[in-house]
Write a structure and sequence with these properties.
By secondary structure, the chain is an alpha/beta fold. 39% of the residues lie in helices and 21% in strands. Helix 2 links the parallel strand 2 and strand 3.
Length: 117
């Protein structure tokens, strides 16, 4: 895998009703040089299967399944796998606007900022 510009880390725990909107919003970004890391934190509601289905459809998506350890542990697991120059987090019950990654990356590069909010 080539090194992506951005790693998007999504901790996933029992967010099946929201997960499709979340993942579709990432995959529909106007900036496409990213990896999407889904950290399934022991979901019991079908979220795990949704994660696997997205990984099977798009090679930018990687999934790790782990026993439930909480949000911070899931984010840390994603950080250990991240290959991107930049890292962002997105909760499984939230979504990005279509240009979120493009604007954040452009802002970071133009300003030299370490953090873009």
């Amino acid at each position: 895998m080539n090194t992506p510009a951005i790693s998007v880390i999504v901790p996933v725990y029992n967010v099946a009703p929201y997960l499709t909107q979340c993942l579709d919003s990432v995959l529909a970004q106007t900036f496409g040089d990213f990896e999407l890391l889904l950290v399934d934190d022991g979901s019991t509601d079908g979220s795990s299967a949704l994660c696997d289905a997205y990984a099977a459809r798009d090679d930018r998506v990687r999934v790790v399944h782990q026993p439930n350890a909480g949000l911070s542990a899931a984010r840390n697991a994603g950080l250990k796998l991240a290959l991107g120059e930049f890292i962002t987090f997105l909760d499984g019950d939230d979504w990005f606007d279509a240009a979120t990654l493009a604007v954040a990356r452009q802002t970071a590069l133009a300003s030299g900022a370490d953090v873009v909010l």
